[in-house]
Design brief:
By secondary structure, this protein is an alpha+beta fold. It has a single domain, classed as 4-Layer Sandwich (Deoxyribonuclease I, Chain A), CATH 3.60.10. About 25% of the residues lie in helices and about 30% in strands. It is built from seven helices and 14 strands. Helix 3 links the parallel strand 7 and strand 8. Helix 3 packs parallel to helix 4. The chain binds one DNA strand through loops.
DNA sequence: ATGGCCGAGATCCTCGGA
């Protein structure tokens, strides 16, 4: 089974690229972020036409997350915890893999810039609430996959120029600590688990020729609960979608489960 | 040495993203 996470930066502006990706990857479950639309304007039909169900937690203009899936996803939860700003940033559901049930968590963590503002506090609070809730979930469910746009650069290796990002909300030590805290609950950053020294990115800014210069960031992640580790066959960052016409600024990360 | 983009939604600009 193939599961993909991708921040598409507007599902309506990106519909052709997303359909292209579904066709070429044949992924089973696509977790998307920043759909930038309300549920009523989501392209359900376009996905249905190619064999995918959609489960949508939308918002007008900003944010929004969804599952686009060949398989049925049960127990959809759009209120995993209380978001102080009532933004649509997390959707959770259950999938079956053989006889096992896996809790799938699709997140779009707040950006948090600039750091001297309320936006930064919101990011910290959001991560605190999220970690607390995951800790609780782990006591009743050992099979958890968290995927999405974390807006966290875990380490120096995950950014083209770490010096530039010292005071950025994506790389502030205080924020990275929240990410490590989450890992310490019993997860692996599965890309890094399989690739100890590899330097790959999932995001390249639209400005400054960042893509051409490979000035990227690794901020889209899959976290796998330790109980599921031996089921993960592979993880891959697919750079092709970032090279296409009218791309998202992020590219998909793919997870292969046996 | 600096800054260069893009999408949504409402106007001909602002906000938000990272």
């Amino acid at each position: 089974m193939l599961i993909t996470s991708w921040n598409v930066n507007s599902v309506r502006a990106r519909i052709l690229n997303v359909l292209d990706y579904l066709k070429s990857s044949n992924t089973d479950i696509l977790m998307i972020q920043e759909i930038k639309t309300e549920e009523k304007n989501f392209p359900f039909q376009e996905f249905k036409n190619v064999g995918y169900h959609s489960y949508v937690f939308g918002q007008k203009s900003y944010n929004g997350v969804a599952f686009v899936s060949k398989k049925v996803i049960d127990k959809i939860d759009k209120a995993f915890f209380v978001d102080e700003k009532k933004q649509s940033r997390i959707i959770v559901g259950n999938i079956k893999n053989k006889s096992e049930t896996i809790k799938l968590v699709n997140i779009y963590v707040p950006n948090g810039n600039p750091i001297d503002t309320d936006k930064y506090k919101y990011k910290k609070n959001w991560l605190n609430s999220f970690n607390k809730k995951i800790k609780k979930l782990l006591t009743v469910n050992k099979n958890i996959i968290i995927g999405g746009d974390f807006n966290v650069i875990p380490n120096e290796i995950d950014v083209h120029d770490s010096k530039k990002y010292e005071n950025d909300a994506l790389f502030k030590l205080e924020i990275r600590k929240k990410f490590f805290e989450l890992l310490n609950l019993g997860f692996q950053d599965i890309y890094r688990y399989f690739n100890k020294n590899k330097q790959e990115y999932t995001f390249w800014d639209y400005t400054s020729g960042a893509w051409q210069k490979n000035n990227g960031l690794r901020i889209d992640h899959f976290l796998i609960s330790n109980n599921l580790l031996d089921k993960i066959k592979n993880v891959n960052i697919d750079k092709k979608p970032r090279s296409k016409i009218k791309p998202s600024d992020h590219t998909p990360i793919e997870l292969e489960i046996i």
